[in-house]
From TrEMBL, chains A, B, C, D:
Gene3D superfamilies referenced in this protein's UniProt entry, alphabetically: Aldolase class I, Phospho-2-dehydro-3-deoxyheptonate aldolase, domain 1
Record has Zinc-finger as a keyword: no
Organism in which the protein naturally occurs: Natranaerovirga pectinivora
Keywords (A to Z) from UniProt: Transferase
Gene Ontology terms for molecular function: aldehyde-lyase activity; transferase activity
Annotated protein name in UniProt: 3-deoxy-D-arabinoheptulosonate-7-phosphate synthase
GO terms for biological process, alphabetical: aromatic amino acid family biosynthetic process
């Protein structure tokens, strides 16, 4: 960490600050510039924050040299993590193809879609049982009944299953019935939920928050990992920007950027990013071409009747076509 | 709600869509433009979302005419809500002056600060017992011990108290020990927590999410209100933008904008908005001048030793000066 | 265009407004909702803006139904535009591969890079002669001497050439010496420059502004086209967001979105988007996979000595590899 | 400037980099951390950019310690700049009250408004003669005829005058007819225009770009100042964010932040920030309370007939009321 002192800070004040810094267990290197005096902190600074030094009157600014995440960092874990769930591998060149409806609505709906996406080449079935809806007046999900249908769909098709856990109460049920746990964008900094996920022995798909920086996202992964669960898969699903023609802005650069600094697998959700089904195929191609470890796609056989997010759902035949086109590109 | 159809949609398709729309219980007005055909939905559209109609192939776009919130809307509740807590009123010209440390660190720390802010004119004491920290390696709060100290501080000073609830487990404890419950920015769309807060009989200060639109913020208030708790106070604390010189961007316009569309009180947190103590006084003046129903200010007697957010904490004497200066301006 | 009136507006006031609207030459459809009264404007509304009606006390909000651009719109020009420059086609499945240094620094530098990118498969040479630098103390470009070097490079390699015009003074020189004119992100709403570009008979590559919506971008294209020059190529180069790990956020969704609403070719500049050379190859693959009509890539044989933007420049051998890898994917 | 090297960089490579850095005329301090090697550059680094060092393979990141602006910096010019135009002072506690129509539409319109705002206490008259409109189909301004009307209004009322210059062609006319030159948000990085403004002997009001950081804004001021014109007044007019209920987001924190790092006066334009007349009074109060050196307000006697931006224009009687209310608060 680097601490920049205000111009003309007295030596006495600098010395007092250095004593305080050393009390935290790190060493201090001093460097005098033309107008600014700079302190470099050497040692394990992961417990320190730049903000805590900015409380001193003599400090102008403070900034990190090293990323604040450790378990998620490529620096200390250079090989890509590969997660293996009953033989399905994710990461290190192995792609997760997650497909299914936004919400589970009925047995017939889920099984119809499950069979279809299985045939087209998906290896994981998604389907929301608990729905975090921005309006209290919208459909909130089938809850435990939905989880049971996911289990049934797995028995029928052999697909792995994933669904979102939205609170401390539901996450244990999710872990009981499905193969992967999803933490949604709105809960990316629900630290109580992250800690709980870290104590469960199930892979976690961690969606990026709507306005989360990549650093915050990796720190959220760090929360899960620091509790003992290292099976974290990141999922880019679009960030919030000023643009309104698309629902969110897919940050495709996050894939190669994350791969430079972290060993965790990263997949892309083109459906939520765009909010429009017509853009799901091109964005899926972009995701696989840029090097993502998979995609998560909403598929619905009757999107116009979907209880949520019909606008962004592919029909099964369009999903089939997408899978064929990805294969043609060698993706 | 308005639905814009794609150019050259066939009459048959339009008729089918109209039947589906009417099934939701609303009426449909048709309007033919030069290139576009527009449907207007009349009736209670609060259960509908524009996205659900965008699942139809023939729909180009859909948008709301009426705001999706009802209980929080000024349209149905024109008078400003005034919340009265043991004689302290908030809203309708009555200001909440909330002050105290970011985190509760010790009895001595909390009581020292409590006495001081009481003398300067605060009417509510803040102090974090559960801290939502972006790093798992940072101080996480004194938890239940902190709540007990808040109660003690109230007995000593007569100040009302507020602290943040960060999960389903802690919110009941918070409600038991303090006078107001704070829902933090990172939990603004933690719907399970919002619903629980809606079932408690305590005023809730609902902070705006880092990238929440005002509409989403009012919908989060609606979640609380729809469970029966109408005592919601909104708190603007800065939004996330591209600017890096300040920690967040205080959206001061949110105050007059919210007052045009909602009856709920709205206060401002200048400390988190700027992230720098030197900007707390000017931003507090701006907040009161623009018409806010109060401010929430971090005060610490030893900011350089604070376990969190020292950089943005005012020293007690600076808080005193701020209160005097607000009084001079008649704010 | 739709105009939403405030609840309880008097009939007399509505009638007066309708008279004013009809004076602009459009027809008015009325529609009464439960709480709101809505006016639909029918006819050519491209000269009207929603804002102009919001000046009326009785108007709550106003919004467009039809996109405000006409010449750039797919609605009135359904076939993709293909631009043909001396046999090199751009658009409709034909890709522009634009490569070269950020700034032209010397004859040796430009010719070395030109020969190399030509061999690797580029068809257009880029090189900045006039540099819009955010600091007045940075290198500002070789200006007219740079333009002459571009001409020389074309004679030598047969590559088409492009460079940025930054003001009314320089644009005519640019048009004289090069085959395409680039309008940079910072000048996307320099309307005087756009109009001038519209009067020249040269294709224009119009970069998206740092915070320009797609609508504003297409309106900037409309400025050029409305002066008579229909040869406009859009270039997505990253937008400004809160993320700091990458210089800008490449809005890859802009490619399929623009293709849905406009007939103009659209290319991608991965170099400026990421600001890091290591991300140029994955982002180029993503761009071609998503359906872009080309890429614009910075190439420099000695990036560490580059007078601008060395960090984002590919070395010639890396550019060669990129071109080979794109070919393998059939892109 | 600080340069952070990649972990495990060889000594030989570090030494080569240090030689290159010293060639630019600055000194280098070395500092070895636990995982990272850090170089500190000492001397005049204003001609250097962090990006230029990121072209080296061994460099992980580079960042500034000192702000890149010099002439605009408080570090080298601690006293507030006060600009005096014919006795009207701006800065250092003296407020500019700029009022008038968005566009000049006719003699009668301009003179009516000018007289009225003069009576209410404005000291500078604004009025657009050249309008940068996002649509080529919108009203583009009265141009030279408008400038003549501004001159006439000054003769009649004694008010100083200001109008926007939008290109190299018009800026000299603007300088000839008016007392201050405005550079609009869309031209904040039109460097050719900034340089030209720097050569004129007229105060310049420099609006912040829609997505300009404060650093870029001050660098734009630096462009003007580096050409010899130190009379620059900054104008905050709202930035672009994800929020859509207001047209832009007024960054009120920019006022105290700029005052900490620069000596230039800064004013606020509440009209463009909000885009709604009803919010102009509260935002004006906030601006003056936060410490701005003035406000720029759109006033129109018939906003519903205004050829541009009627929605955000105050009627003369509302502007009068605003001035009275500011006086009551001692602002």
């Amino acid at each position: 960490m680097i601490i920049i002192l205000k111009p003309k800070t007295e030596r006495k004040v600098i010395d007092e600050l250095i004593v305080k810094i050393k009390d935290t267990g790190v060493q201090v290197h001093e460097s005098k510039g033309e107008n600014y005096y700079v302190l470099g902190l050497v040692g394990d600074t992961s417990r320190l924050t730049p903000e805590q030094f900015e409380g001193y009157d003599c400090v102008e600014r403070s900034m990190r040299v090293q990323h604040p995440f450790k378990l998620a960092s490529k620096l200390f874990h250079p090989e890509d993590t590969v997660i293996n769930i009953e033989g399905v591998k994710i990461g290190g060149g192995n792609a997760a193809i997650i497909a299914g409806p936004c919400s589970i609505e009925s047995e017939e709906q889920l099984l119809t879609i499950a069979k279809s996406v299985k045939e087209s080449g998906a290896n994981i079935l998604r389907g929301g049982a608990y729905k975090p809806r921005s309006s209290p007046y919208s459909f909130q999900g089938m809850e435990i009944e939905g989880l049971k249908l996911l289990k049934k769909a797995k028995e029928l098709t052999g697909l792995l299953t994933i669904t979102e856990a939205i609170c401390l109460d539901s996450i244990e049920h999710v872990a009981e019935y499905t193969d992967l746990i999803q933490i949604g964008a709105r809960n990316m900094q629900n630290f109580a939920l992250l800690k709980k996920a870290g104590k469960l022995n199930k892979p976690v798909v961690l969606k990026r928050g709507l306005s989360a920086t990549m650093e915050e996202w990796l720190m959220a992964a760090e929360y899960i990992m620091s509790e003992g669960n290292s099976q974290v898969i990141l999922c880019e699903r679009g960030i919030r920007t000023f643009e309104t023609y698309t629902r969110n802005t897919l940050d495709i650069s996050a894939v190669p950027m994350i791969k430079e600094i972290s060993h965790l697998p990263i997949i892309v959700d083109p459906s939520h990013a765009a909010g429009k089904w017509s853009m799901v195929e091109p964005l899926s191609k972009a995701a696989m071409a840029v090097g993502a470890d998979g995609i998560m796609v909403e598929v619905h056989h009757q999107p116009e009747n979907a209880l949520s997010d019909g606008a962004q759902s592919l029909k099964p035949e369009k999903f089939k076509k997408l899978m064929e086109n990805l294969a043609k590109m060698g993706l």
